[in-house]
Amino acid sequence: ATINMAYNGRDDIAQGMISFLTQHTVFADITDFEHNVVPLKSNMWVSFKALTDATSKFARNGNQQLEMGYIESVWEAWITLTQIDSIRHGVHHATYKRDYIQFHGVMINAFGFAVQQMMVNHSIAEITSMIEKLCATTSSAEREDFFLMDNWAGICTKASQEKLSVIANVAAQKAAANRLIQAFTKGSLETT
């Protein structure tokens, strides 16, 4: 499905994302354009399909499509929030993803749902500003800990045989989106 999305010339969102991701210094190095789920042996961190699916959740406002600059600003805020640019240099994605959820498809899609829901009351500029302010007022360690799989138990992870596994359905994506919205609007990673 991913490779079909990438070559579908009639999908404006997918084509815009290909252009953006392949020209972006970080995304060009971390995006897998061939697989729905990034294979364990891959050097890539995120799936083009997850990024494009998440983008499609907020890229259209009614019949009108957002300008690519706004879409790019949302993903720039995501880079800051998730710290992918620094994390990717110290560890292999398969090792990292055992404990952290921010680069799993469920959380990428949750981010798309969060932006979509926030667009009801906020502009894209306001949304990215909220995310940037959250990042400016929290430490790298706090943001990384926020995405520990343990902290998402019952939302988009579940315990199975002494380890956590990802719940990847739409209900889990929406539940995680609600938690992201709470963090963005409150400007705090506290869950209480």
From TrEMBL:
It holds the Pfam family DndB. InterPro entries: DNA_S_mod_DndB. This is Uncharacterized protein. It comes from Escherichia coli.
